[in-house]
Amino acid sequence: MDNSVVGPASSRLNRRALTILVAVAVVVVVAAASYVVLVRPSSTPSHEPFTWTMQTIDSDVWGGFDRETTCISADSNNNIHICYYDGKNCDLKYATNRGGAWWNRTLDAPGDVGEYSSMAVDSNNKVHISYCDTTNYALKYATDAGDWWTTETVVSYGKDRMLSSIAIDSENRPYICYRDPTSSELKCATKFNGSWTHQVIADAGRNYCSIAIGSNDSLHVCYSDPDGALTYATNSSGTWTSVVFDDSGWWCSIALGANDEAHISYLASNQEGQNSLMYATNANGTWTCISLYDDVGNWNTGTSIAVDSDNKVHVGFFDSGEYDAMYATNEGGFWGCYIVDNREYPRATSMTIDSNNGVHFSYFDRGDLEYAASSAGS
What we know:
Elements: E1 4-6, E2 28-32, E3 35-39, E4 50-58, E5 70-74, E6 80-86, E7 91-96, E8 103-108, E9 113-121, E10 127-133, E11 138-143, E12 150-156, E13 164-168, E14 174-179, E15 186-192, E16 195-202, E17 209-213, E18 219-224, E19 230-234, E20 241-246, E21 250-256, E22 262-269, E23 275-281, E24 288-293, E25 304-307, E26 313-319, E27 324-329, E28 336-341, E29 346-353, E30 359-365, E31 368-376
């Protein structure tokens, strides 16, 4: 990792080239043009200091490199829940180790359903999933909050695939963030008293969005605006307000810290034209953006972020240049990037944290759904 950029106390990050050459492994801080560049010594990612236990959850579910999507969550008992797209059969599927052994089932079929799924677990350990119905051009919702699994349409949109993000409030109500392909508005769908209501967050946005719910059930959303700038929006004051925190980016994921501060992982092009893993936060009152990993390759399937009980940050991502499932964290007091799985071609990663701060990944590898869990090394 090197050439990390920390943005100024303004809403946009200036990435104009500033070349600094260093020949020794030291940290150099240079201030110029109202921004700061941190030059860190290069490092090669490794598995250490984490050991990973891996397991194949489902086999032969490959449907194409651009159609592999999965999402992972942990409940209050540290049981793991995974939703994923079975690309071979074009179905939405679900797997869990609740009860001890892993098992899976199909949640929605027939047709082409289940892409771009997002999942959250409520306070009763019930599962809520939003996903795309490509056959009927609909955003759908699945849950086991009742006596059995049910699925329903949230909104029909007439064209294109739709990415969404789901979160659960203190009353166990689902909130689904999505972009309306017809109006291009960024919206949030909420289920009250059995019916879905839709509120506009922003007049226009792109497909990339992520939602989190804070104290007093305030909503916090990150998304790409029509110009590609990454934006943070919240209704914590009672009305929606927004701020651009980086002038470009995609595949964002948001999590909240102990004081509802935002932590966001995303991808962006760096000054060398590479796609970098980025991290942004407003934890200190102003937005700071840093590069965590310089080159993730040209093909990617998103990032995921979580904040643990010690307010440390964890990020899952995919290095498509090296075909590695990757993990970044600052839990040791500094940021480090580590390899989770480089056995074959792991991709489409999703990550979550359990109540003991254990790290869990779901991802695909050569058509199989894989699961990895970590413990700290010596």
